[in-house]
Design goal:
527 residues, alpha/beta, seven-stranded mixed β-sheet, five-stranded mixed β-sheet, 18% strand, globular
Length: 527
């Protein structure tokens, strides 16, 4: 039995207000559970509790925060098949994909637990005093990162587990010392309810302050807007559409106290096919990219929506092989009816635009299910592409546009016409890379991650990962939403000047009781 009540301060909040249901996007069938819509009082209560909890939670010992994060991972692991099956029913995604996503979710939590427990992430920097310096003595100054306060996290439609209730945003915020209030995505409320219960249980088991976590339901926009506008919210994390993210940014900027909103807004992830690899591997590259374009019904933020190449016999072979593969790719259920309708509308409209030529459209459509994606690829000339900004807009789904350039110079002009991206990719033979440094530099200028001879779909969760990019890919390209670096979205530096040692945070005390790496007078040390 799924409990569809809102969770405030790790306890259920009973309500008599409106509720909504969840549906299987592949059949339209109604699923178990009624989910209570949060009201203004619940928003206030959740953020009041988070603010009170912050005063305690920010000072919880690193080892205890790590226990909390590991306990969440353990509770989610216990849910196992039951959780995966509910996520399958609500998203239309296959069991294998969501089983892997469950592992990624718990892996992220354990990764942040290790980070917090080790402790060096606070970036402690110490400049010791020098009373003999002239013309003025040097003061003792010590700086480190500290949490900023309650964080509002919006669940993402395309990752019911890894970017939702206990996903990377929540894990990194909790790791930093910030309480979290989650606004559930209405496409997977049952999955979210189960994970919310797991977090609440873990918080109680490990003695965390109750207000460290709340979870609110709504099938519209009102609750999300109230959360962003609330003066006790100190940061927001959002993964979704450009229009949704920009609306949240606007609300945050209109507040009395402006707060950071870390948004992932969209990306078409350009792929450059250099001539050498098309000459030698056109068919194999086409096969890899047909799979990448259609993976998960194309509903990845790193979906390769744009492919750039110069006219050649190798490109002709690539287009032929890509078309053949796309035509026989089976349809897949899209996450919601709204996402499916938007995909159908945008992909159909662009085919009718000047200069666009259809390469292939999938004919393997499952007519027994609804909201089915139809994989589509098309071509356009470089001049037409540069002249029409519509062609560089994201179409969320299994769609990709191949831009055919007359020469390398024109290919670079296409790259320089693009806005910010999460990823860019180069497919090339090793010996031709050194001849195209202009292209490589242009790709690095517009993206957060530059990939060589691989597909962009698939984001490794590790310390080195940069999942972010120049606007409009994200609202702040200095940060990542994946990997250990995600923690820095929810902290700020504080410097302590001329304080008595015993009154300093443990991370800055002379004896280094936590034994973390610190920079002391420009030397990295554990002393």
């Amino acid at each position: 039995m799924i409990n569809g009540n809102n969770i405030i301060a790790c306890d259920y909040a009973l309500a008599d207000d409106e509720s909504f249901k969840a549906f299987d996007p592949s059949t339209g069938a109604q699923l178990e559970g009624a989910f209570q819509k949060a009201d203004t009082l619940m928003v206030n209560n959740a953020l009041n509790a988070a603010t009170a909890a912050f005063k305690v939670y920010k000072n919880v010992a690193p080892a205890d925060k790590a226990k909390f994060l590991r306990a969440i991972a353990a509770e989610i692991t216990t849910l196992g098949e039951t959780l995966v099956n509910r996520a399958v029913a609500e998203s239309g995604l296959p069991v294998a994909r969501l089983s892997g996503e469950l592992g990624r979710t718990t892996g992220q939590l354990n990764m942040f637990a290790n980070l917090v427990e080790e402790g060096s992430w606070v970036d402690a920097v110490i400049d010791t005093a020098n009373s003999e310096r002239t013309p003025l003595p040097k003061p003792d100054i010590r700086r480190m990162y500290s949490p900023i306060g309650p964080v509002v996290v919006f669940g993402a439609s395309n990752f019911p587990l890894a970017f939702s209730v206990a996903g990377g945003d929540t894990a990194s915020a909790l790791a930093s010392g910030c309480p979290v209030v989650v606004k559930v995505h209405p496409a997977h409320p049952g999955t979210s309810a189960m994970v919310g219960q797991a977090i609440s249980k873990a918080a109680k088991e490990t003695g965390m302050p109750d207000g460290v976590f709340s979870l609110l339901f709504d099938d519209g926009y009102a609750t999300g807007a109230e959360l962003v506008k609330h003066e006790q919210t100190k940061a927001v994390a959002f993964t979704g559409s450009y229009h949704g993210g920009m609306a949240l940014l606007k609300l945050a900027q209109e507040r009395k106290s402006v707060i950071p909103v870390f948004t992932e807004l969209g990306s078409i992830n350009p792929v450059v096919l250099l001539p050498g690899i098309l000459d030698s591997q056109a068919e194999s590259v086409a096969a890899r990219y047909a799979s990448s374009i259609t993976l998960g019904a194309g509903q990845f933020c790193t979906n390769p929506g744009l492919i750039l190449a110069v006219k050649s016999a190798g490109l002709d072979r690539f287009l032929s092989a890509l078309g053949d593969a796309i035509e026989t790719t089976p349809s897949a259920t899209m996450l919601t009816i709204g996402i499916w309708k938007n995909y159908e509308s945008l992909s159909d409209k662009i085919i009718g635009e000047p200069g666009i030529k259809l390469i292939a459209k999938s004919t393997a459509v499952n007519t027994e299910k609804i909201n089915q994606s139809v994989a589509t690829v098309a071509t356009v000339g470089a001049s037409d592409f540069i002249a029409n900004k519509k062609y560089s807009e994201e179409i969320f789904g299994p769609w990709s546009l191949v831009v055919v350039c007359d020469n390398i110079t024109q290919l670079q002009q296409v790259i320089e016409s693009l806005e910010g991206q999460l990823t860019t990719t180069v497919m090339a033979e090793k010996d031709e890379l050194s001849n195209h440094t202009g292209i490589l530099n242009a790709l690095a200028d517009i993206s957060g991650r530059v990939i060589l001879n691989n597909v962009p779909t698939g984001v490794e969760v590790c310390a080195a990962m940069q999942h972010g990019g120049p606007f409009p890919a994200t609202s702040d390209s200095r940060f990542t939403s994946v990997g250990t670096g995600a923690i820095y979205r929810f902290v700020r530096p504080i410097a302590w000047q001329d304080w008595e040692d015993s009154l300093l945070p443990l991370e800055l005390q002379a004896a280094n009781p936590l034994k973390i790496w610190r920079q002391i007078d420009n030397n990295l040390t554990k002393n």
